[in-house]
Amino acid sequence: MLKYTLSRMTSKELRSVFEREDVDLTSALSSAMDIIDQVRANGDEALLRFSGQFEGFRGDAMRIPESELVSAQRRLPKLLLQAIKRSKARIEKFHSKQTIRPFEYEDDCGIIGQRVVPLERVGVYVPGGTASYASSMLMACIPAKISGVKEIAVCTPGRSGKVADPILAAAGICGINEVYSVGGAQAVAAMAYGTETIRRVQKIVGPGGAFVTAAKLLVRNDCEIDFLAGPSEVLLIVDDHADPRFIAMEMLAQLEHDPLARAVLVTDSKKMIESSSRILGDLISNAARKEIVDQSSSCGAIFIKVKNVNSAVEFSNSYAPEHLVIDVRSPKKVLKSIYNAGSVFLGPYSSVAFGDYCTGTNHILPTKGVAAMKSSLSTYDFVKIVPYQMLTRKGASKLSETVRLMALSEGLPAHADAACARAGKVR
Q1: What is the largest CA-CA distance in the chain?
Q2: Same domain, 45 and 107
Q3: Are 83 and 165 within one domain?
Q4: Which of 51, 55, 87 is nearest to 169 (CA)?
Q5: Among residues 322, 365, 355, which one has the least CA distance to residue 340?
Q6: Is 23:230 a contact under the CB 8 Å cutoff?
Q7: What is the predicted pLDDT for the residue at 230?
Q8: What are phi and psi of 18, to 5 degrees?
Q9: Catalytic center residues
Q10: Which of 36, 134, 148, 284 is 20 to 30 A away from residue 49, measured at CA?
Q11: Where do runs of H (alpha helix) occur along 20-133?
C-alpha cells in the first residue's frame, strides 16, 4: 500500500499514480499479428488450429447449437437463472432510455435532417475459459439489441471446447443465436475479417485479456472497436462521513480483479486513511484471491490526503477513473463537478459491484484515463448518424456565393463550380 499527501508528492510520484502500470502488450502484439495473418489467409483451418492449441478445442463445429443455449438455462440453478433475468431486465430498462433521435427541419434553403441507422452486424467478445462472465454477455448484447442491430455474433473461449452454462444461458435469454466456441486473438481476427464459418462484422465490442486487446488494436483500421481494455480501477472520493469498512471492502473488490488493478482513495480525512488502510490490510490477509490481492495492493492500493473535497474532485477529473465512488455528505452536489469518469457510484450503499451486475448501467468501461475522452459502452456505440439535405433552387442560389468564396480560398475551384452551376451561375 502507498500513502501520500498530495501537496508533498514529488512529480515522479504523481506521474506514477496517473500513468498507471499497464499490461505489457509487446509480446502479445507480435503473437497476435501472426495469428491474425494466418486466420486472414487460411480461415477456418487456422481458427480451428489455434483454438485447439490455446483452448483445447476438439472437432470442427465451432458454432454452438441454439438448442444448447436453451438447455443451458435448464441446467442452471434456479436462483442463478432468476438473477441473470433480473439483471437483464434492469440493463434493458437503463439502456432503452439512451436514445439518439432522427430529426428534420426546413429553412429558406431547403430540408436538412439526420437519420439514425443501426449497425447491421456486430461482434461481441465474452471472456471465458478459466472464468465465466455471463454479465459481459448481457452488457454487450443488450444495448446492441436495443439499438436495432440485426445480427450479433458472439465469440467466447471454452474449456476444452465447452462454454460455461451461465454464458450460454445469458446468450439465450438475450435472444442471441450465433455463438462460437472460440476466443483469443483468433476470434478477433475471425470477426474482423471473416472465415468460412464466421462472417465479418462491422464492429467488435467486449473486454478481453492481453491477446484480445492486442488483436483489437491491430484490426482497428479495418474493423471498428469499442476501446482497449486495461486493468480494472476505482477511485474513491471520501470524507470522514464514510464507513471505513465499506471503503476498504470496495478497494479489495477492485484489487481482486488482477495483479495490475488499482484502488485509489482520495480524502481530506487523515483518520479515514488510517482506518481504511488498516481494515484493508486485515481483509487482504484473509482474502479468497489472496495471491492476486497481495500483488495488486503492493502498488495499486493508494491513499492520498488532500486539503478538501474540492481538491479531491480536481484530482479525480485529472485521473479520469474507470469507476468513481463518491461517498461524502452531499454526493449529488459533488457529482455536478465531475467531468471525467467511466461510471459513478454515489453514497455509502452504491458499491461498484452493483453496477458490475444489475443496477442497469454498463460495466464495459474505459480505463487508464481514457474516460476523459470516451464513454461507457452504450446504445450509441451501435448506431451511425446519416445526415441529409435537399436544397431548393432558391436555396442553392442563396448559398452558392458562400461556397464559392470558401472553396476558392481553399484552392478547390471545382467545388465552387459545382455549387454555382446548381444556382445557374458561372464562376
Answers
A1: 83
A2: yes
A3: yes
A4: 87
A5: 322
A6: yes
A7: 87
A8: -75, -35
A9: 322-323
A10: 134
A11: 26-42, 44-55, 66-75, 78-95
Is 221 contained in some domain?
yes
Same-domain check for residues 96 and 208: yes
Neighbours of 136 (CB within 10 A): 25
Residue with cell 468460412: 196
180's CB contacts (< 8 A; 6+ apart) are 62, 63, 64, 153, 154, 155, 156, 187, 190, 197, 198
Bridge partner list, 104: 113
Task: Judge whether 427 lies within some domain.
Answer: no
- Angle, in degrees to the nearest 10, between helices 66-75 and 165-173: 110
Residue 379 has pLDDT above 80, yes or no: yes
- 3-class DSSP state of 298: helix
CB 344 within 8 A of CB 373: no
Note down the domain range covering 198. 26-225
* CB-based contacts of 19, cutoff 8 Å, min separation 6: none
Q: Is residue 82 located within the same domain as residue 209?
A: yes
In sequence order, the 6+-apart residues with CB closer than 8 A to the CB of 76 are 84, 165, 166, 169
Cell of 101: 433521435
The three grid cell numbers given for residue 73, joined into one nine-digit string: 438455462
Q: What does the block give as the cell for 370?
A: 481514457
Angle 30-31-33 from CA coordinates, rounded to 5°: 65
Domain check: are 328 and 406 in the same one? Answer: no
pLDDT in tens, 96-127: 999 999 999 999 999 999 999 999 999 999 99
Phi-psi region of 104 (alpha: psi -120 to 50; beta: other; left: phi over 0): beta
In tens, the pLDDT along 139-196 reads: 999 999 999 999 999 999 988 778 999 999 999 999 999 999 999 999 999 999 999 9
293 and 203 in one domain? no
Tell me the pLDDT tens digit for each residue of 249-285: 999 999 999 999 999 999 999 999 999 999 999 999 9
- Cα radius of gyration rounded to whole Å, the chain: 25
Q: Name the pairing type of β-strands 383-391 and 110-118.
A: antiparallel
